[in-house]
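Worked example 3. Consider a protein that binds pyridoxal-5'-phosphate.
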Amino acid sequence: MNLENDQYLIQGIPLLDLVKKYETPLYIYDSSIIKRQIDRLNKAFDVPHLDVHFACKALNNINILKLVNQWGAGLDTVSIQEIWTGLKAGFDPSRIIYTPNCVGVDEIEMALELGVQINIDHIETLEYIGHHHPNTKMCIRINPHVMAGGNENISVGHIDSKFGISIYQMPLVERLVKTLGLKINGLHMHTGSDILDAGVFSFASDILFDVAKKFPDLEFLDFGSGLKVPYKEDDVFTDIEELGVILSKKFNDFCKDYGRKLSLYLEPGKFLVSECGFFLVKTNVIKQTPSTVFAGVDSGMNHLIRPMLYNAYHQIINVSNPGGKPRVYNVVGYICETDTFASNRVVPEIHAGDILCFKNAGAYCFSMSSNYNSRFRPAEVLIHEGTDMLIRKRETIDDLLKNQIEVI
Ligand SMILES: *Cc1c(COP(=O)(O)O)cnc(C)c1O
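Given these inputs, the predicted complex is written out as structure tokens:
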């Protein structure tokens, strides 16, 4: 997005034109940013084979998945429904990794049937597959017990975490592999979203290399994600170029010792799509109380829950008044409970009717939206090769009622 003559543009298209055409609230995705991020990853790593799998829980519109497929990435899925969506988007099953947590064997059976790469983080499930599908190649998700992640809810590698098989249980896993003849073709870790620096990532990767020595038939090592992108000016973020240099060297050294060239897998969600997204809302009211000036907008925690759920910071731009004098606001939603997007935020003066834009609205924004308060979910627009395209209709009252059965 750039500012020219007091107008914000994406790929040359003024945001206010998009608002006229599609109304608010509106999610907009700039495809060129996703492509840029994929290219950055490919450039940053110098290994025999890098395989990027997009964690589609971050942004699951089928058009985004199709583009990601075209640009050579695979898919990281966490549910059978994500697998179905990925297959519908055209991904070959071999390009889809399925990393479930606490799902039943019936769902695992469905995934096996579809031929995707499964990634198991539960010892009993390993045994189950060993007994029922002895020739299935599978990946094991380990928990390296590294404390990382921007928020308690998204930090998944620590000792109390429900994710992964503890590295302390590896002797038991090895015993099962030998006894049941399990085919382990990959090892995986994902220690949490928002790992701050290459150092933490590199420390965790040493643990994965150590475990990997004990499995002779590996084809890949999957380092998960947790790559952080900047959410504000001067924010800390993962230096992907630095990480690429450090991890590539370690990986290549490991492959030499191991005696075979493995593939290096990454499965970023946020890194690929956070910055491509822009969420446009309209200011309904400016309401002054004894302590605060509220800007109340036509959206809320039902459309963008990250600020309320994770205390996440999203930059807010006044698209209608870029040159306005800076003032201090609490930007809030229209939901009937406290849904604060931002407190004490300095924004160019906001008037009722002004269009505000939340940045970094590509990852975990629309995909976490709901119909709370019986509100419709927003429309989604893709800007691709200079053209804007509606990729999800705004909902209607029929959508809200369609699965309800009137029996009274
Ligand atoms: C959510 C998730 C990811 C993506 O994490 P980001 O922080 O969005 O990059 C990758 N792998 C697994 C297993 C996940 O659950």
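Take a moment to read the result before moving on. The mean pLDDT is 94. Residues 31-273 form a domain with the TIM Barrel fold (CATH 3.20.20.10).
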